[in-house]
Amino acid sequence: MQTTDTLARTVHETWAAALGHDRFNDDDYFFSVGGTSLSALKVAARLTAALGRQVPVRLIFTCQTVSALTAALAQPN
């Protein structure tokens, strides 16, 4: 299991890769910084691969900040 800081960094880097930029902070909303449905699918797929567990795309829609997504992913399955 990753630490919360490492998990937050992984989420942030995954967002940056999917968005094509890193001009956002951990409390910015995914869709407000250029996220689309397609990039949300990319985030879910990349996090699934990075974390070795299924990350459903709906989680990107319900936890729309790096902080919220990190907190959700830090919860036990």
Secondary structure: elements and pairs:
Blueprint: H1 4-19, H2 37-51, H3 57-62, H4 66-74
Index terms:
single chain; about 80 residues; mainly alpha; Non-ribosomal Peptide Synthetase Peptidyl Carrier Protein, Chain A; about 60% helix; about 0% strand
Broad CATH class: Mainly Alpha
CATH superfamily: ACP-like
- β-sheet strand percentage: under 5%
| Low-confidence blocks of residues | none
Give the overall form. globular
CATH topology description: Non-ribosomal Peptide Synthetase Peptidyl Carrier Protein, Chain A
The H-and-E topology, N to C, reads as HHHH
Percent range for helical residues?
55-70%
- Give the terminus-to-terminus CA distance: 11 Å
CATH architecture classification: Orthogonal Bundle
Radius of gyration: 11 Å
Structural class: mainly alpha
Averaged pLDDT, please? 95
Query: Biggest β-sheet, characterized?
Result: none
List the total number of helices. 4
Counted up, domains total 1
Strand element count: 0
What does this entry look like structurally?
- This protein has about 80 residues and is an all-alpha fold.
- The chain has one domain: ACP-like (Non-ribosomal Peptide Synthetase Peptidyl Carrier Protein, Chain A).
- The chain is about 60% helix and about 0% strand.
- It contains 4 helices and no strands.
- Helix 1 (about 5-20) runs antiparallel to helix 2 and helix 1 packs across helix 4 (about 65-75).
- It is globular, with a radius of gyration of 11 Å.
